[in-house]
Amino acid sequence: MKFIDEFRDVELAKKVIDRIGKISTRPVRLMEFCGGHTVSIMRSGLRQLLPPTVEMLSGPGCPVCVTANADIDRAIALANLPDTIVTSFGDMMRVPGSYSSLQHARAAEADIRVVYSTQDTLQIAKENPAQSVIFIGIGFETTAPTIAASILQAEAEGIKNYYVLCLSKLCPPIMKALLDLGELKLDGIVCPGHVSVIIGSRPYEFIPREYGVACVVSGFEPLDILLSVEMLVSQIETGKPRVEIAYLRSVSPSGNKIALELMDRVFEVGSADWRGIGVVPASGLKIRKKFARFDAEQAFSITTKPVVEPKGCICGDILRGVKTPLDCKLFNKACTPEHPVGPCMVSSEGSCAAYHQYGANDER
Q1: 146 shares its domain with 188
Q2: DSSP code, position 187
Q3: 162-204 tens-digit pLDDT
Q4: Are residues 214 and 141 in the same domain?
Q5: How many helices (H) and strands (E) does the chain have?
Q6: Model's pTM, two decimal places?
Q7: Containing structural domain, residue 274
Q8: Is 217 part of a structural domain of the chain?
């Protein structure tokens, strides 16, 4: 089988593929939610290895990709304030907003720095007490505990010039929003691994109960995903959808209690703006009033121009799973990793970037 050598245990991979072929009797549509899963699937050519009855779609599980233009515009506006340092993870730098990007703003002399953790930003704040230091806090439940911890540390150490633009998003609510849209008839979901390390598997239980959709939490190795697909197909074939964990080495039903308590102490649930979907109630995190002095939204007054979406870009459709990068007229033409039009071509977990790098592996 082509690409089978990508799997660490080739013989086991072949056995799992064979088992899926034997138990799969009807067409099923599965969605891998996480961008990390999409990259692993594309790199290994896993879709090609599955029987034709199994269709896999990519979902909105790339935190950089789902960050709305309005939020990027706000981050750039903050960076243009005087005596201000903005910090961001590297993937965000090149994501186009309505009129610019953080990278372009930095080239225009805004002080924007790439960091690898909130600790880096706290250190910058300590070293620059006369300037406001703002961390652009994107991510899902995976990064939210570290952002919460940084706010608590800033409070404990009396760091008064540290702020967070909180753009954190929650995965189970957006799964519900996608299912409620009804654009796709999904039979199963490969639930995100890293997110589930934090929240556990229980928050997904409403999906099989209310929507009849099977769920399996997966790790990130191709074999992990393959085993998850087998579990999903088995659930669907028996007509007993439920939540299972195929990533038991890292995920428990109840999640990480300490991380969840950190999040709950610092954040409250609020609405969030998702690219391609819009504002979804109760799908984001906001800084509680107790910690409002660290909230960049509360601390700074900014104005932005009307939001403009890139003409011809279908990132929103791709994030909802209704189209693939191959449906986009800009893909690998006007839109490339060197000159991205939309965020899905920028992020290392973006579907367009994965198709650009590994697209040949996905041909059936």
Answers
A1: no
A2: S
A3: 999 999 999 999 999 999 999 999 999 999 999 999 999 999 9
A4: no
A5: 15, 11
A6: 0.93
A7: 69-170+256-299
A8: yes
